[in-house]
Amino acid sequence: MPSGCSASDPMSSKLNVLDLSFNSFTGNIPQTIANLTRLIGLSLQNNTLSGPIPDLNHTRIKHLNLSYNHLNGSIPVSLQNFPNSSFIGNSLLCGPPLNPCSPVIRPPSPSSAHIPSPTVPPKRSSKVKLTMGAIIAIAVGGSAVLFLVVLTILCCCLKKKDNGGSRVLKGKAVSSGRGEKPKEEFGSGVQEPEKNKLVFFEGCSYNFDLEDLLRASAEVLGKGSYGTAYKAVLEESTTVVVKRLREVVVGKRDFEQQMENVGRVRQHPNIVPLRAYYYSKDEKLLVYDYIPGGSLSTLLHANRGAGRTPLDWDSRVKIALGTARGISHLHSVGGPKFIHGNIKSTNVLLSQDHDGCISDFGLTPAYERPCYFISECRLSCS
Q1: Do the annotations mark residue 231 as ligand-binding?
Q2: Among the ranges 48-62, 204-218, 236-250, which has the highest mean pLDDT value?
Q3: Structurally, what CATH architecture does the domain formed by 172-303+310-376 represent?
Q4: How far apart are CA 269 and CA 291, in angstroms?
Q5: Which of these, 48, 132, 239, 376, could form a disulfide with 290 (CB 3.0-4.6 Å)?
Q6: CATH topology of domain 11-94
Q7: Does pTM top 0.85 for this prediction?
């Protein structure tokens, strides 16, 4: 770590996010980094760090990226729930979610090293004569297996031909099983030649492409002003949120320029970062981190029964302050012209500690002119 920024400093114990990526640091990761009990984000990728990974069990770590270093040893149990994209590029690391560690083979003891193994007498080969009934049974069974193989190949060829004719990839939509969330598909307008044109922002640790995203199981989270949001679970147990935009009025060049402006917003604990986007004539997709706490709207209005526990005043103040910090960060980074334009309770997501996180920022220019007066903005008071 650079001088003047050791993990043992009194001020460093208040750190929430530590980003030292792309700095060519060498040596071991300090064990004292585990003393940062408020740490929720750690980015040390693309350095030349070596040695084992310290146990961060006493931290609140939620975002971790140690990829492309020279780390070795087994991954601590407290960090094994992160995806393998957080550890790739370290060939000497092992343990979940990477390859399992090789067991240590103990050498044989001296007392047993010279004990000769008992010799097994060779078996005399014997010729078994097959009866006519057995030969007929084998022939019939082989013919049935061959028929099934040919039938399977034929079905696969026909299915591939149908898919090639439509040239459309679709994502599977799986409801939660309760019947209240409609089944719907995202990515129905994605064309085959463009299936790998998913644009990731710098610093993103995800390592999937658009084809992997469209194969993922999708659950409808809700519909908002700009489109429908889906919870997508990929094959590597990576969970993201995919927002399918509708009625975007700007062209590709203006859309990409706006996404670049959104991508310049650095990671902040009170902002849901945009990780990637996709643009085609018939489909526009945005990829965000999945926030498990749900929205403020759900917390306030979902349970109206007799046993409902109202949200206490301290939690409301904490959520409001976190949301204000996120909006302040957006204005300080993007300037006065970079506004949200759609602040409401459904766009305030909650972390596990009930911190408010702003989502859906920077999308207003893709739909309409920005509003500069309170009467023009779509505000929601919950």
Answers
A1: no
A2: 48-62
A3: Orthogonal Bundle (1.10)
A4: 11
A5: 239
A6: 3.80.10
A7: no
